[in-house]
Amino acid sequence: MNDHIAGGRARRGPNRRGFLAAAGLTAVGAAVGTAAQGWSGTARAAGAFRVPAEDVRHTRTWMAWPDRTAIWGSDLGGVQADIALIARTIAKYEPVVLCANSASAAKARSMCGSTVTVITSIPVDDCWMRDTGPVFRTDGSGALDAVGLNFNGWGNKQSHARDALVAERIAAYAGVAFSSADLVGEGGAVEQDGAGTLMATRSSLVNGNRNPGMSQRALETAMCAAYGASAVIWFDGVRGKDITDDHVDATSRFLAPGKALVQMPLASDTDAFSKDARQQYQILSTSRTATGTAMTVAKLQGPDYNKIRSTNQDFLASYANYYVCNGAVISGQFGDTAADQAAKATLARLYPGRTIEQLNIDRLGTGGGGIHCVTQQQPAA
């Protein structure tokens, strides 16, 4: 969810669904506002539990079905088609469970097809499962549990009465122990290498709309306890330009312990998000992991916004917002043919042995999100 300027065409910070007071934000914010203060030591001691890297084997992928015109307006049908395409594609490689409200479950089943399991026991407000779903952890000895990040609608910017309960309800459905982290955040705000190192933007987490009065050091302690990590690489990020306050997973990703990638802007791009991407690359290039290993950083070239299909000012064209599933990497393609092909080649080089699937997700991109944003992995224990 970024804000780009390319060749003079301004990409305004996606006002993803307009921050939606019309969708009941004020009432819901009052109803669940106490969640933002819920750091009362409820997180389980990390012990041997750790959030593994995304490329470990998964039991299933979790997704959610959007059905609210109050959020998506006339874009809803197109976004549903993109969600269905993503779900069907992932289902070629691993099971997909999609949470849908009862009133829209039949449509979800029709559009997703028989390879995707649609359930109605976990109601949802929207489709951003990366942010609302639980973060699963393994202990290396066959045990699995889940942590919730106390989702508060990206700082009470969108109604989320149902989404605030999704993490705990999925953990119950999966039959695993659940605890709440000692911070408020979203899965897209934190990247993990599975070996003790995290990365995140200050703009998303060291932010009064999630964690008022909480210092960076206190956040590090809470993040490391939740993820089973011991070090955090911080980027400044971009505050207040999009609904997420600049989630890290649209720009920088871990490939393995000591290895990362950053989606780079064109040399001519000078907007805040382009400057932030360059800063993220520089910081990662001089960082070390929790075990002291120097980071090596690959570049993933972003597209030219003058050559992509979408002309929407809110569009997010992030190749880096890909999803790693069993045997495949699922990424977006945006219509800049040369950049799309180059991104596919880069991902194939970085993920040898995995099929690279590129999908047209233009309707979802108009909402400021991508494939990683709408998926959440459940790793095999």
From TrEMBL:
The alphabetized UniProt keywords are: Hydrolase
Q: Name one GO molecular function term.
A: protein-arginine deiminase activity
Listed under GO biological process in this entry are:
putrescine biosynthetic process
- Keyword Transferase part of the UniProt annotation: no
Q: Which Pfam families match?
A: PAD_porph
What PANTHER family does the annotation carry? Answer: AGMATINE DEIMINASE-RELATED
What is the protein's given name?
Agmatine deiminase family protein
Gene source species = Streptomyces tabacisoli
